[in-house]
Amino acid sequence: MKEFFDEPGKKIILALWILIVLSVFTAWLLYPHLFDLSNIGKLSVKYYYTALFIYFIIISLRGLILMPTTPALIAGILFFNPYQLFIVNIAGYLTSATIVYRYSGYLGTGEYFERKYPEEIKSIKKLFLKREIPIVALWSVLPFTHTDIIVYVTSSLNIRIKKCLAGVFIGESIINAFYIISITGILGLQ
Fold first, then answer.
1. What's the rounded Cα separation, in Å, for the pair 148 and 95?
2. Using H for helix, E for strand and C for coil, what is the string for the chain?
3. Which of 12, 31, 52, 168 is most buried per CB count within 10 Å?
């Protein structure tokens, strides 16, 4: 990891990322009302597509701070058309996964872990070999696992982004459809 810190550009990016994460966390602690997802609902009454776009931005950027998406999805179910919500969620997840994948690759986490844990990485790569998409899809569909973690792992293992995104698409499509159909049915929405 020492080589990583020898590159000033990466130091700045990492410092900015840490600053953003700490700033968001501090703002959440000091001003929790700003993070109340019902604000999107209030906005959606008058400015529906603006609220949907803001929701998309939140879903797209949340991977950088490892924010769970289930609360946002449940709030979205209450305020948006289920079909539009599904499309926006999947687009947001794929955007978030792309950002996380590229960010992890930029930081060079794969090279670091390969040097630090060569045998373990070799074993994990062997496990993933020819099963990348099903593994990512399964991880993504499980409700209590964080999809961004498997994206970081695939990037670190130098698994092609297309395979990673295909797995995210499959897994997140299944779990999102399940949540949206179940919750709208239970609550009698639409």
1. 11
2. CHHHHCCHHHHHHHHHHHHHHHHHHHHHHHCHHHHCCHHHHHHHHHCHHHHHHHHHHHHHHHHHHCCCCHHHHHHHHHHCCHHHHHHHHHHHHHHHHHHHHHHHHHHCHHHHHHHHCHHHHHHHHHHHCCCHHHHHHHHHHCCCCCHHHHHHHHHHCCCCHHHHHHHHHHHHHHHHHHHHHHHHHHHCCC
3. 168
Q: Give the pLDDT mean for 89-109.
A: 88
pLDDT at position 96: 93
If 0-12 CB within 10 Å is exposed, 13-18 middle and 19+ buried, where does residue 14 land? middle
pLDDT at residue number 120: 79
The model carries a pTM of: 0.80
Token pair belonging to 56: 């998309």
> What pLDDT does residue 152 have?
84
